[in-house]
Amino acid sequence: MQSILFLTLLATAMSKPVDTLSGQYWNQLNSSLVLACSNNQLTGTYQTGVGNASGTYPLQGSTTQCQAPASFGFCVAWNNKEHGNSHSVTCWSGRVIEHGLDTFWILSSDSGPQWSSNRLGQDIFWKSRDGQ
């Protein structure tokens, strides 16, 4: 756990400052996020670095403004041509921090037992894959 925290802090210290939401980002699990921001609306794609959801997925969201500082939220419905319908949606909510995007997410599924239908987590996205 301490090594993950150290790597997160090191990548944050070495990454490029974020001045706009538009662009490509990567998180600690090598998931790719491409955002375009216009009139406080977010569009783009998400490609996960984990799980069975291969390919890219469209996303939609909103933000307080396209330039930093900003708070934002976007959602991905896990349904595409490559993988089909996973019957789940993930939404991220967060804010622009100096060197990236600090987010919390909730994954909701309409299949399986009710007690496991929602999962929560945190992602930090950086503008470059290596945190620089």
Short description:
The protein has 132 residues and is mainly β. 10% of the residues lie in helices and 52% in strands.
Description:
There is one protein chain. With 132 residues, the chain is mainly β. The chain has a single domain, classed as Avidin-like (Lipocalin, Beta Barrel), CATH 2.40.128.30. The protein is 10% helix and 52% strand. The chain has one helix spanning 2-14; strands at residues 23-27, 32-38, 41-47, 57-63, 71-80, 84-97, 100-109, 118-126. Strands 1-2-3-4-5-6-7-8 form an eight-stranded antiparallel beta barrel. The longest helix has 13 residues, at 2-14. The model has no long low-confidence stretch (mean pLDDT 87).
Unreliable stretches (pLDDT < 50, length at least 5) are: none
Q: CATH superfamily, please?
A: Avidin-like
Order of helices and strands: HEEEEEEEE
Shape type: globular
**Major sheet summary line:** 8 strands, antiparallel, barrel
- Can you list the strand order of the major beta sheet? 1-2-3-4-5-6-7-8
By DSSP (H or I, 4+ residues per run), the number of helices equals: 1
Reconstruct the topology from this structure.
Elements: H1 2-14, E1 23-27, E2 32-38, E3 41-47, E4 57-63, E5 71-80, E6 84-97, E7 100-109, E8 118-126
Antiparallel strand pairs: 1-2, 1-8, 2-3, 3-4, 4-5, 5-6, 6-7, 7-8
Keyword list:
10% helix, Lipocalin, 1 helix, single chain, 132 residues, eight-stranded antiparallel β-barrel, mainly beta
